[in-house]
């Protein structure tokens, strides 16, 4: 029997970190469950492009799925191997050194039930090619999970920190950058991310705003007030679905499906 994570469990080990992952995890898990039901197979093949140290890959392995992580960073792959071993899923979670642009040098196209591309499109040379490769890696009917930095969230965060000129610059910059010191090379609107999926041949589905409030509220408030973390998680879950909040979310998540 696979090591099943209980329903509702988030993939992170610390409650505070669940603010970063819970919305995406719930959406992703539902899509994976739907795919498993549609294929009649409880064990799916999942590809995590730029999966890093496995913050999603390892929990997906714990659900019993076979997960391949492609990442260019040897350090990340080393951390992934250790994390998978600690979680007892080393036989189901495999790391491969590679790049989303040269994806098919290291994995086969058309072999995956779900492909994740989380926190990667900000950094790659050509996001459109990256998403095309992610879609080409899917089996017909497979699920694509895109997560990337949102433009509006960065503008709001810079403005609330008192950096008004930087906020203004990000607003007008084609890549959504607030200045030379900005560590993020590119940010997206929900429309841009959805269009990337569509142009790559996938049918975009649900869009969620991730971390609408979490990065704006003082950490001490969440850590010290009884019940505050749970209330904030519930608020984030409710706001995530509302298009009005997509334009100010720190990250945007788009779920899409390969036709067939
Ligand atoms: C912000 S981390 C996100 C890690 C993981 N996906 C997550 O959500 O926790 C970005 C990851 O993308 C990887 N990366 C950077 N450029 C890449 C590329 N061209 N192709 C694939 N992965 C890349 C990095 O090595 C890093 O592990």
Automatic annotation (TrEMBL):
GO terms for biological process: methylation. Residues 47-144 form the Methyltransferase type domain. It comes from the Bacteria. InterPro entries: Methyltransf_12 (IPR013217), SAM-dependent_MTases_sf (IPR029063). Keywords: Methyltransferase, S-adenosyl-L-methionine, Transferase. Coiled coil: none annotated. GO terms for molecular function: methyltransferase activity. It holds the Pfam family Methyltransf_12. This is Methyltransferase.
């Amino acid at each position: 029997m696979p090591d099943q994570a209980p329903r509702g469990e988030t993939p992170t080990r610390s409650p505070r970190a669940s603010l970063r992952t819970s919305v995406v995890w719930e959406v992703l898990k539902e899509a994976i469950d739907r795919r498993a039901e549609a294929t009649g197979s409880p064990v799916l093949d999942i590809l995590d492009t730029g999966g890093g140290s496995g913050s999603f890959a390892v929990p997906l392995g714990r659900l019993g799925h076979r997960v391949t992580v492609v990442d260019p960073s040897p350090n990340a792959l080393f951390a992934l191997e250790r994390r998978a071993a600690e979680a007892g899923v080393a036989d189901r979670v495999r790391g491969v050194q590679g790049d989303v642009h040269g994806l098919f040098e290291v994995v086969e196209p058309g072999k995956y039930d779900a492909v994740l591309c989380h926190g990667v499109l900000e950094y790659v040379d050509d996001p459109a090619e990256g998403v095309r490769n992610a879609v080409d890696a899917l089996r017909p009917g497979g699920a694509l999970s895109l997560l990337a930095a949102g433009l509006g969230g960065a503008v709001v965060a810079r403005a609330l920190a008192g950096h008004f000129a930087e906020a203004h610059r990000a607003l007008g910059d084609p890549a959504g950058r607030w200045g030379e010191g900005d560590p993020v090379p590119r940010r997206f609107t929900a429309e841009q991310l959805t269009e990337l999926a569509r142009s790559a041949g996938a049918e975009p589905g649900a869009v969620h705003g991730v971390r609408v409030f979490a990065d704006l509220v003082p950490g001490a408030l969440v850590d010290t007030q009884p019940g505050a973390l749970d209330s904030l998680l519930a608020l984030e879950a409710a706001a995530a679905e509302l298009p009005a909040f997509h334009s100010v979310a720190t990250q945007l998540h788009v779920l899409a499906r390969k036709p067939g």
